[in-house]
Amino acid sequence: MASPAPTRRYSRTPRRQLEMQLDALYQSVFPSVVAIESHFVGPENRDLKHPVRHNTGVFVGPTTIVTSANVVGRVLTDKPATGGGAAAALHRSYIAHNFAITRGSIHRPLKTKVLAVSFAHDVAVLEVVDDAPPEGKSFTPCSIAKSPPQKGDVLLAAVHMVNMQFGMMPGHVRAVGEKTFNVRAPWPLENGSGWVEFDNSQFNGGFPRPWSDLFKSEEEITGRNTIMTGSPLFNSDGEFFGVSSWDVSEKGSSRPVSFATSLLPIKVALEYAKNKNPDHDPVVMDTWIQC
Asked: Cα–Cα distance between 233 and 252 in angstroms, integer?
């Protein structure tokens, strides 16, 4: 388990100058960010309190979008028949009806097709299949980082808040490939997936403190999905390097520690989507899921 990363306060940078730098970074990446509206329909989704989800994605190609697997679908579990011995439960996937919502005076939903999903690593690749881009609009793909971030690096998350309003959440990378406290990724995510641990509340003000209950807990804490699930993460050069997935926070705290899908699973999913045989290769990459 890694030691907590010290949070840089940027104490030597005047607040106004820092805000201008962050705003310039946000403006440079914002054209590639898109809202994703997902509709979970049918009897298998009656248990959902919110069958329509509004999240975030990012264009990495003229019509190709990357977001979270949790945004575009879910894993369902079929319990084995009673009296069948020690038969394992069967898992199957449900892929929602997903739309990319363009910005501007008219928010036009564009149909998408899911090309690849890895539920274990929480990454999905979509393609816009409507006539695109709409008249007077263009999709601006972002640049993908060539290498993963390092501990202490500055990052910026772009988040679809509500009603096509987007926000930026700056933060720092706390750890890469390991966790600084006893926490587990929520099912069906793979706990050892090489998650990028980061803070996202204006550099989190140094929270959680080194003496936090999070660091002292002997019991493993299970994370949760959040409003940031699916939000793209960018480095200080404006390059895309991760997808926000899940987080954990102290009881009563508004300053969570978040975890993102790392660069390698994203590149693997993009390569799979590019090269798979649509007639034979499944959309879902997880072999333990019955498609």
From this structure: 26
